[in-house]
Each structure stands twice: as structure tokens, then as C-alpha cells.
Design a protein that fits this description.
The protein is of the alpha+beta class. It contains 5 helices and 3 strands. It has a 3-stranded antiparallel beta sheet. Helix 1 runs antiparallel to helix 4.
């Protein structure tokens, strides 16, 4: 169909397309209160945290914590390091930046 209701400059998107798949994955990863709580705990630490300590601090069981950590890892928000039988998780620089910017956006007054 040929629409002439309003012109759109398609040239502005050439070479500047947003990585929508990555943005959607990040949005899904951040859209859960438990994942945000886990991510906040990790961002507040300078060293990797053992998964056992995360389980103690959130109101869900170990299998659910592991599920949330897997989703955060797939989104590029945490890294994992195996030490024997334990897994240690750490927030990525992207996670730190996203939480900082989200916090700023929430606390910034809305301009009319």
C-alpha cells in the first residue's frame, strides 16, 4: 500500500538501527522484581558473590535463583565463575550502567 498521510525520513535509520533484539532481551531480564533484587545485590558488591549467599537474600528457592541468574547471564548483565562446586556471580559494567541510569530516570522529575 502507498501511504501519503505523513512523510517518514527512512534515511535516518540507515546505519543507526537500534539493536531491538538485544534491547528486548535486556528489558525482559530487568522486568522481574526478583531479578532486579539479585542484580542490585550484585552491583553493590566489588567481588563476585557465591550463589549460596544470593539464595539467603531473596524470597525464592535455589532453583528459582539459578533460573533468574541464567536469564541475567544470557542478557549480558552478569558473569559467572566456577570455583569447585560453587558458582560465583558478578554484575557486568553494562548492568551497573543500566541500574544507575534507571535509578536516575526514576528519580528525575518529569518535564511537562
Amino acid at each position: 500500500m502507498d501511504y501519503h498521510c505523513c512523510p517518514i525520513d527512512d534515511r535516518s535509520r540507515v546505519g543507526h538501527a537500534l539493536p531491538t533484539r538485544q534491547l528486548a532481551q535486556l528489558a525482559r531480564a530487568l522486568a522481574d522484581e526478583t531479578r532486579l533484587e539479585i542484580l542490585t545485590l550484585l552491583v553493590e558488591q566489588n567481588q563476585p558473590i557465591c550463589v549460596c549467599h544470593l539464595v539467603e537474600r531473596v524470597p525464592v528457592g535455589q532453583p528459582t535463583v539459578s533460573h533468574h541468574l541464567r536469564l541475567l547471564r544470557q542478557a549480558g548483565l552478569v558473569t559467572v565463575e566456577r570455583r569447585g562446586t560453587w558458582a560465583y556471580y558478578q554484575a557486568t559494567p553494562l548492568a551497573r550502567l543500566l541500574l544507575e541510569r534507571l535509578s536516575e530516570a526514576i528519580h528525575r522529575p518529569v518535564m511537562a
